[in-house]
Design brief:
- With 198 residues, the chain is α+β, with helices and mostly antiparallel strands.
- The protein has a domain at 1-41 and 101-117 and 155-198: Alpha-Beta Plaits (2-Layer Sandwich).
- The protein has helices spanning 12-16, 20-29, 44-51, 57-71, 81-96, 111-119, 132-136, 141-146, 161-171, 185-189; strands at 5-10, 33-40, 101-107, 155-157.
- Strands 2-3-1-4 form a 4-stranded antiparallel sheet.
- Helix 3 crosses helix 5 (81-96).
- The structure holds guanosine-5'-diphosphate and magnesium ion (MG).
- Guanosine-5'-diphosphate is lined by residues 61, 64-65, 88, 91-92, 122, 141, 144-145, 150-151, 153, 156, 159.
């Protein structure tokens, strides 16, 4: 479990907001280990593949949007989750390909869940203060949907261990992931903290 891995992508808006360092800092300081990293401009096919690795994602994202509109007392744009999801996939492909992104693999205890906690909820309007999305961006589904664009929320993070495995395989070759030891891992995980006192 301490070797769990998750995929993080700093989206084009995160790069343009010059938040690469801030995001890496937050993931590093909790004790996670960076094991792979690259900058690239993804193409449309790649992004489409990324978001459809989980066959249920389209319906889930569509339902999430509909629920969010309803909980705020607004009428959702689409009432059918699948058509809402397909609309979001289309705008996401555009969003994710307008400039460079930084893709990374982070490793450590409960990496998937810990990273999602640090990243915060999908819609920055309601992401908790103290999370990356809650602290550095202010977009909402309504503002984004009015102009027909993706919610600008700075980064992607895998949402389950199964998704993380598939996403890492899509973005990285096995040989791009580095297997190495960080000295601090002894403090984070080992039973004995011996060897500290001289
Ligand atoms: P995440 O895992 O928190 O990134 O959220 P999802 O996997 O549900 O959605 C993927 C991305 O699609 C989000 O990060 C947003 O950029 C975008 N998105 C999700 N829902 C909506 C929506 O209702 N409207 C718009 N315009 N974009 C959305
Ligand atoms: Mg997601």
């Amino acid at each position: 479990m301490r070797r769990e891995q998750t995929l993080v992508i700093i989206k084009p808006d995160g790069i343009q907001r010059t938040l690469i360092g801030e995001i890496i800092h937050r993931l590093e300081r909790i004790g996670l280990k960076l094991v792979a990293m690259k900058m690239l401009v993804p193409d449309k096919k790649h992004v489409e593949k990324h978001y459809t690795l989980d066959p249920e994602w389209i319906e889930k994202v569509g339902q999430k949007t509909i629920d969010s509109y309803k909980s705020k007392g607004h009428k959702p744009i689409d009432t059918d989750p699948i058509s809402a999801g397909k609309r979001i996939l289309g705008i996401l492909v555009h969003y994710m390909t307008f400039g460079p992104v930084v893709a990374m693999v982070w490793q450590g205890g409960h990496a998937v869940e810990i990273v999602r906690k640090l990243v915060g909820g999908t819609e920055p309007l309601t992401s908790d203060v103290g999370t990356i999305r809650g602290d550095f961006v202010l977009d909402s589904y309504m503002i984004a949907d009015i102009s027909g664009r993706g919610v600008r929320n700075l980064l992607h993070a895998s949402s389950s261990v199964a998704d993380a495995q598939k996403e890492i395989e899509l973005w990285f070759d096995k040989k791009e992931i580095v297997n190495y030891r960080l000295v601090q891992e002894q403090i984070l995980y080992d039973v004995n903290l011996d060897g500290i006192l001289e």
